[in-house]
């Protein structure tokens, strides 16, 4: 029995449709290559739940009793340590904090993959927050900073400023100097982020101190580190910024960071393996987000001094004991911005003794 040609052609066409569907290119963006630094969905879901808690905890207090409690507490500075080794300068920080405990809180995100020796100082005792592994040149460093911000928002509604530092950072001034400068600063113009908020010490239009650079020779290379169109449409190239890894954020900006979902879904994408030299997500996400959301509420400069002279493999100059002196501290403080630098990095752990030797007479004597 023979079949007509049209019938055969129709049958072949129907049989080939599934094959065509499987082989045809999909209209979806290509996935980034697998990476050990990628953030898994379970970790992401856990973080999002944590950030929602921080958002709810930061809601305005209801009623006069809630307002009285908030106004009764002085504004505090949350010092957030993002570390992957021992806090070698814990004794120096303890001396810096001494006598000002009611004006500060300490939070530590310590990489769980590293066997750390906990510092025997009271300010750091019990201040380690639930942490996850971090990898250089990956979005895990952004997540760690966001977890620190969320923990500080939940822990104490009096936290007004959030200073991110590392284990290799040191303070350059006394606590009094730093505190007075931050509390007195209200140079930001009215912001939509603070509209409708309740007046009070925590709701002044304080600025955040974070470096924000819009013109940099390597800006385009950093922008396409995940793929040429990977950041679109949420982050067009003209909105992309670079800046400092370490910052001091005002409370409203800390809350903005933990609330963000829109930009994070782009910066969460791992960089392409061929773009590792341009992949520093933590130096891109925070400046870009804050500049897009509240450009006039940021100073656009950092309070952490870093010496990039003779940098090696993306790491700044490391100071060694022989370099420690009063002259070095005075030099590191100098800035072309409104304030002198408050912090400096990067110091080797064996700088502790010479730094302690000049801490009271020079570093904390303004």
From TrEMBL:
Claim: Secreted is one of the keywords in the record: no
One GO term describing the cellular component: membrane
InterPro entries, per database record: BC10-like (IPR044174), Glyco_trans_14 (IPR003406)
Any single Pfam family the record assigns to this protein: Branch
Gene Ontology terms, MF aspect: glycosyltransferase activity
Natural source organism: Apostasia shenzhenica
UniProt subcellular location: Membrane
Alphabetized PANTHER family for the sequence: CORE-2/I-BRANCHING BETA-1,6-N-ACETYLGLUCOSAMINYLTRANSFERASE FAMILY PROTEIN-RELATED, CORE-2_I-BRANCHING BETA-1,6-N-ACETYLGLUCOSAMINYLTRANSFERASE FAMILY PROTEIN
Designated name of the protein: Uncharacterized protein
Entry keyword annotation includes Repeat: no
UniProt lineage: Eukaryota, Viridiplantae, Streptophyta, Embryophyta, Tracheophyta
Signal peptide segment: 1-24
Keywords from the UniProt entry: Glycoprotein, Glycosyltransferase, Membrane, Signal, Transferase
Mode of membrane association: Single-pass type II membrane protein
